[in-house]
Amino acid sequence: MALKTRYSTFNLECGTDEAGRGCLAGPVTAAAVILPTSFKYLLLNDSKQLSEKKRAVLKPLIESECISFGVQHIYESEIDSINILNASIKAMQASISQLNPIPEYIIVDGNQFKPYESTPYTTIVKGDGKYLSIAAASVLAKTYRDAYMAKIHEEFPMYNWKQNKGYPTKEHRAAIQKYGITKYHRKSFRLLPDQYKLEI
């Protein structure tokens, strides 16, 4: 099913999405994208449906053909202090604030958002599989976050973030149990299931 170009009647409609919400380590990263109405890439879909290779191909295409884009990381300490939902919304709003021109309408992946200035918005559950601009934002959020995780992987290779990107894989949890936590871990998250005890 081809993704739709617009939800509203406005030309300057931006889509926004985040990546890394369910991770145990690293930032939550959001992107916002305004695409021209002529933008057509059949390959573009929700980033979770795309291979890393396809996302790498799409990233420069989106960046060169979009009207504007913004990307924002919100880091662990802030996630711990304001909670992951607020951090995700803050990251999306910060990515929208980087857009030039200013969007006339915002479509948000998911079901929760807070008003951004006086711009009208709509939340769309599974929007990244329905609208091109949200799908484009999901690709940028994911590729920028993955690049960041690959960078901090060099500092702490034993957690294998290059591979698991900070998600709660068995391997990641086993490494937390063995080595404890780093400054990149989210202290407010349940880093280990109940059967493990974590010494902090």
UniProtKB/TrEMBL annotation:
UniProt keyword list: Cytoplasm, Endonuclease, Hydrolase, Manganese, Metal-binding, Nuclease
GO terms assigned for molecular function: RNA-DNA hybrid ribonuclease activity
Coiled coil: none
Top-tier EC class: hydrolase
EC number: 3.1.26.4
Main function: Endonuclease that specifically degrades the RNA of RNA-DNA hybrids.
Family: Belongs to the RNase HII family.
Protein's name in the database: Ribonuclease HII
Gene: rnhB
